[in-house]
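> Could you send the Outer membrane lipoprotein Blc prediction when you get a chance?

Sure thing. Input:
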Amino acid sequence: MRRSRLQRLMLLGGSLLLAACSTLPPPGIQPVSGFELQRYSGKWYEIARLEHRFERGLSDVSASYAPQADGSVSVINRGFDPAAGRWKQAEGRALFNGDPHRASLKVSFFGPFYGGYHVVVLDPDYRWAMVAGNDRSYLWILARDKQLPDDVTARLLEKARQLGFDTGKLIRVGQTRSDG
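Output:
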């Protein structure tokens, strides 16, 4: 009996670990279909985000995406750390979670560990996007320009609320420095 209890605990622990490492979108959230990586490629500015330790305190955050010959996507995240007085940069790699025309990817900046990256709202002209992680504690609003019109921001915030994100915790990201 003791052995079966241990086996159940190990199975439960393994299941929880796998769930924590999920790269799938949160329940009830569908990534954009008809996605075109070539159009999405290039530089995006972070307009707002739910705060996380890997971006805590950074301003002027941007992300650049570039398709690679092997089907992966190179990712370069960059932001200014005012406390240190310098730019910080992280390079990663993204892979599609299946169909490359569905905006559901997994991104890694640290070896074999991946997180979800799901474009859930996308401007038809690829000028702005809303991206969710693997749960509702990850959300980014991105744009090709350093500012978004207020009406677009309001629509994205309303959509985020409808999808179950805590928009009261979103922080606006300052974009005042040159890209230097």
